[in-house]
Amino acid sequence: MSEKKVILVTGGSGLVGKGLQTIVNTEEKRDDEEWYFASSKDADLSNIEQTRKLFEAKKPTHVIHLAAMVGGLFHNLKHNLDFFRINMQINDNVLNTCFQLGVKKVVSCLSTCIFPDKTTYPIDETMVHNGPPHSSNFGYSYAKRMIDVQNKAYHIQHGCHFTSVVPTNVFGPYDNFNLDDGHVLPGLIHKVYMAKKDNTPFVIWGTGTPRRQFIYSLDLARLMIWVVREYQEIDPIILSVDPDDEVSIKEAAEAVVEGMNFQGEVTYDTTKSDGQFKKTASNAKLRKYLPNFKFTPFKQAVKESCEWFEKNYEIARK
Ligand SMILES: NC(=O)c1ccc[n+]([C@@H]2O[C@H](COP(=O)([O-])OP(=O)(O)OC[C@H]3O[C@@H](n4cnc5c(N)ncnc54)[C@H](OP(=O)(O)O)[C@@H]3O)[C@@H](O)[C@H]2O)c1
């Protein structure tokens, strides 16, 4: 019998953490694993004493580190210093505490939005540090990139098994549906909800032509569970659907219209900017390890997210 794993998930109350909770409590339940999902109420991880107290109490053997200060474009633009400092503090506190307490494996979370602004496509894991990130979110991006630097340094100096994953745009139940501060897909879901309620047109910002790779939080959870159990590298791994499964904002909006059963008018406000046309990520490394992994069909995942939002409107972050 292998020794029991105690897996602590920081940021366990957010979009990605809730996805993990769902999968861990159903299809991936194992007797030799005990999972604990921490929120900022358990400990403010930018504070070292609170971080140590949480880790000393839970005694994790494995950690999935999701906790981060995250935000939309406008929040980032105005607060790059805060995003840098707070995320650096959180990551340094978590990783150093893991080292001091002898945690066997740590899986932290980077993001495809931290890659160089000027790059070639598809982007892959080797390109994280190849040039400055986009100026709008450089504080967040550099703090995230430093996780990869820390992972390598802990490995070289102390032999630690600290690694990271790089998800593309995540969506699903418990997302942030705020119209100003959230991501594109939950924003579209919220907008259709309002259009349906008020009997007004559904207005999509921009032309609808930009393309994005979306990953359902439950699929991301399945992949992260594989990473914490099986993945041996220190270098990051991109967790994304195949490049062929990239969808346009128009296709995403149509999936939301269908998922919400919206019968009203759909229009595009082309005076609004489109943002980057595409930022395709390669999942070749993931496919090398898991050639047969099946992602939930996009329309089905969107429908499930729409149903969750309608059912949980009162408690949803918005
Ligand atoms: N969403 C995406 O599209 C996406 C894409 C790529 C990577 N990621 C990464 O995935 C991870 C999780 O993101 P998410 O979308 O699940 O974010 P989220 O829904 O906003 O959740 C953030 C989590 O971090 C916790 N947290 C924030 N500040 C904290 C602090 N000072 N101390 C302790 N906990 C703190 C929050 O706790 P409370 O609930 O108590 O506030 C929450 O559990 C992040 O590292 C993010 O960078 C996300």
From TrEMBL:
Pathway named in the protein's UniProt entry? Nucleotide-sugar biosynthesis; GDP-L-fucose biosynthesis via de novo pathway; GDP-L-fucose from GDP-alpha-D-mannose: step 2/2
Question: In Gene Ontology terms, what is one molecular function of this protein?
Answer: GDP-L-fucose synthase activity
Q: Which Pfam families does UniProt cross-reference here?
A: Epimerase
Q: Which residues form the NAD-dependent epimerase/dehydratase domain?
A: 7-235
Q: CDD domains from the xrefs?
A: GDP_FS_SDR_e
SUPFAM superfamilies per UniProt: NAD(P)-binding Rossmann-fold domains
Cross-referenced InterPro entries:
Epimerase_deHydtase (IPR001509), GDP_fucose/colitose_synth (IPR028614), NAD(P)-bd_dom_sf (IPR036291)
Question: Main role?
Answer: Catalyzes the two-step NADP-dependent conversion of GDP-4-dehydro-6-deoxy-D-mannose to GDP-fucose, involving an epimerase and a reductase reaction.
User: Family assignment?
Assistant: Belongs to the NAD(P)-dependent epimerase/dehydratase family. Fucose synthase subfamily.
Q: Which HAMAP family match?
A: GDP_fucose_synth (MF_00956)
Any idea what this protein is called?
GDP-L-fucose synthase
